[in-house]
Structures are given as C-alpha cells and as structure tokens.
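The freezer alarm interrupted the setup, so I double-checked each line after restarting. Inputs confirmed:
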Amino acid sequence: MASRPESAGSIYDLGYRRYEGPRLGRGHAITALYVQSLRAAFGLGRGASSKVVPIALLIIALVPATIHLGIAAATSSSMDIVQPENYFAFIEIVLALFVAAVATELVGRDQRNHTLPLYFSRALKRSDYALAKLAALTSAMLVLTLLPETVLFVGNAFTTNASWEYLRDNVAAIPRIAASALVVSSLCAAVALAIAAQTPRRAYATGGTIALFVVSSTAGGIVAVTLGRYGALLSLLDIMRGATLWVFGADQEFDVAGELMFGASVGVTVAATVLVFLRYRRVAA
Amino acid sequence: MSIIVTRALTRRYPGVTALDALDLELEPGIVGLVGANGAGKSTLIKILLGLLEPTSGAATMLGFNVATQRAELHQFVGYMPEHDCLPLDMTATEFVAHMAQVSGLPRYAACERTAETLRHVGLFEERYREMRGYSTGMKQRVKLAQALVHDPRIMLLDEPTNGLDPEGREDMLDLVRRVGTDFGISIIMSSHLLSEIERVCDHLVVIDAGRLVQSAPVSAFTVQTGILAVEVDEQADALARALADRGLRVSRRERLVLVAMDGKAPYDTIRDSVAELGVGLVRIQQRRQSLEDLFRPAEEPDGIAT
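Predicted 3D structure, all chains:
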C-alpha cells in the first residue's frame, strides 16, 4: 500500500466533516437548475465550441438594429427602417434556429448523459425539472428578443437630436416591447422543449424543431392561398408576427384578427407546455 | 430505528414481476444487496429513490414515505447509479457543486463540500479538467462524490465496482467501507460479486426473482459448518469408500472427500483409513461456509446434512 503512487488514488484520511448547515430544499434546487441551464444556453461553463452557435446567433439578431442605427447616425435623422413591432419579423429565423439548437442542449443532453436519475433522486420533483428548464429557455429567448429591441430603442433615442422628446413620445412602447418579447419567447421555448424532451438525439431535436417552424409556415401559406385567410393560424412564425403586431396595436399583416393571432400564440404555448410536463411525468429515469 | 421498511412491495411489468410482495426491515449499517441479474435489485433501489412507482405495497426510508415525501427525503439520500451518468463536457468540480446545490445546499457550502468530497474520493488536480478524459476509475469516483457531497444519511450504490480493474475495485471497496464506517453513513450496495459484499457489508439481503431469500448479518452466512474436508494426494474414491464402510457419512466434491462430523470429529478414523490406504494426507480442514454456497447447488447430495 505504502508504495502505491498517489495517482493510483490512495485514500487520505482527512477526516470527514458532517454538514450541519441549512438545507434549502426544492425552491433552491429549482433555482440552481434554472441558473445552470440559462448559463448553458449560451455555452457558459462549457467548452468554447458550445458558445459558438448561441453567441453567433445572438450577434446576428443584433444586425437589423445595428444597420438601422448605422444609417440613422450617418444621415443624422430619425429613421423608420426597423420598428419595434416588426423587429421579430426580421429575426424570426434566427429565433427559430437558436431555440432549436439550444433546447436539446438543455434537456436532450441530460437524457444523452443519463443524468436524469441524479436529478430526480434529489430535492427536485419531475415537474420542477420541467419548470426550471422551461424558465431557463424562455429567459434565454428573452435575452435574444429584448437585447436587440433595447439596443434599437436606446440607439434611436441617441441618434435623434431630441433624445428626451423621443423617450417621452415612445415610453408607451416599452411595456409593449416587453409583452411581445414574452409572448414570442415563451412560445418558441415551449414548442422547442416539447420536441427536444422527446429524444436524446441532438440532430432529431434540432431538425424536428426547425422543420416544425418551416413546415408550419409553408403549410399556413398554402392553406391561406387555397382554402382561406385563416391558414395563417397554422404557421408558428405567422402567429408570432400577428401576436406582436396586436400587442403594439399595429395593422395586421394577414387578414386575420389580431386577437385571434394572439390567442393562437397563447394556445400553442400552453399546449406545448402541457406536453413538456406530461413528458417529464413519464420519462424513464 | 429502521432505515428502510418495505411492506408487500410489488412491481410488475407486463409479463414479469420484478418485485414480489417484498417485506424488508433494515437497520443502519452497510447492507449488501445480492441477487442474479434481473433478480430485482435495481428495481428495489429505484423504487426506494422514487424513480419508479411500485405497483402495490409501500416503503419508507429514514422514516419518510418514498412515494409521498420525496422532496424531504431526497435531501438526505445519495444515489450512485450503475450506468454512466456524467456530462463529460463539464469538470468534476462544476458538476459535483451543481449537484450539491440541486440537493439543497447553498452555493458557498456546495463549493466547499465539493472540494472536500473530491479529495475524500481521491481526485486531486484532475478535478478541474473536463471529465471526457477521465479513466473509468476516476468516473466512478466522481459518481460516488456526487452521491456523497450533500452529506446524506443513506447512500444507495448500484454496482459501484462495475467496469473497474482489480485495483480500482479494491480502492472503491475501501472507499465504500470508509464512507460506511468512518463517515457513519448507512449504505445499501448492490453487487453480483459475493466476495465484495463479504468484504464490505455488515448485513446481507439476498433476493431472487423479486422475492426475499434471506436478510441476515453477514456473519450468519459464514459460520463454520459441520463438515470436514479431507484432501489426499491420490485414491480419493477409495478413501471415501473406506470411510463409508466405517459408518461415516461421506460425499465427494472435486478432489475433496467431505465427511460429516455428527457430533464429534472423526479425526482418528480418517487418520487410520488414510494410513491403511497408504496415500498421502494433504489436509483436514473444517469447512467454513462462504456466501458463494448460497448460490451453489447443495454440495452434499448424499445425505450429509450441514
């Protein structure tokens, strides 16, 4: 024994100490999982390669705001190229790609690594796990939606000659930006998690989510042209646009009532959320 | 106080009964859980952890109902699964600290105990590296560490030596023994290797086809038997016949002649018989039952009672 090298892992008697401190239970466990998952969504605490996709997409999401502000600064006049109510329409594909790539990193990864039994045998319920993951992905999407809107808003204020007047005139847009970002973020997060939670395979989850966004959009377009205007309700991208426009009180792009678009968005989000929770009630651990 | 109590615990799958009305009551200590593959060991562990629902029956662990009081119970439970369970793109430190927090420990305490626990299981500088590059032995240590980091009162270890080389096996068994005796944490350890259980555990639970075969202190399984094993260098068959002719109950097993003691040891009779045959006597030894015997067909088919 004495001759065994350290690297072979001899056990040193360091004296075991009991833990007498507080045990904070479920709430703390959920928060810990939420924070870790939100960080993981942007590759924080992981290797460099995990950061490439989310950070690149975050930068691309900022491109419309940057171009808008660049032109506004160059011409030193107030511009109407990109408005807060149509920002998401510019970046909807970026949002779909981000949520498709990140969802499986948050949930599929735990299934791939067989980490779920470790979570479910800790101070968490199965539904707590689903809740933490949903909240984390929604928050990550809020970063992706709110950051460009904030840059646009603040940038607009600074590129006009009358910043205070701009702020005063546009203060009503702030809650609308927040509300529309929340609607879009929670819909994307719930739909992507409902798919990603079904499979440990990264390719299936990412491909499936992107396919759902693209196929629903195409199907909605075809139905709208052939069978009637309500076809837009089939398209996830279209109902996200419609709901956003409705929140801002702007004119609808499709010939469908804004309330209906908003209702459809909330309906899809709720349905997908239910699917996520059902999945975690049954998933083998 | 019993750490685990099960009452008529049953788990059925379509066509298979994995646990069949299991009644069990275990005291604190290091308990070995033995059975063939598919005997129901993992099913029992998973039900105790709340990972599986029992079809019927009930169980308590540390006095908490395993089905209805999970959130409270799980703060005091550590689980080391049989299978891989580590995210290889994280470092051991990050992973174990995260798991400690999910067990309810505040952040600072989680970090402090992670450092200590990883030292206890014998991981040093490696703990800051991604687990991707770890050997099987190192991964098993991390798995043990994540089950230990929150100072549980009971740990459930499912085949902790799985996949380890003989040296890694020894280290892991030393660790488990230490956790149980020095750290004072109760342990339920499943294994299909009886020699491991014999080394580490105080108490043994044997299950087969989902039923309890036996639950007793390990010492009760290794008592001396009333049998002498006689080894000679040749003519073992002739010796067996000669001893039987002198009224002893005798049977053969491999190179040994087994003789029932029936009250007093027939050493003189054996000595005389060996001398008459003129063969060399290698040894006479009273047989000690080992745990392995539990799983062997009875070794004295010819009416030798033990």
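Quick read of the result. Chain A touches chain B through 42 residues (CB under 8 Å).
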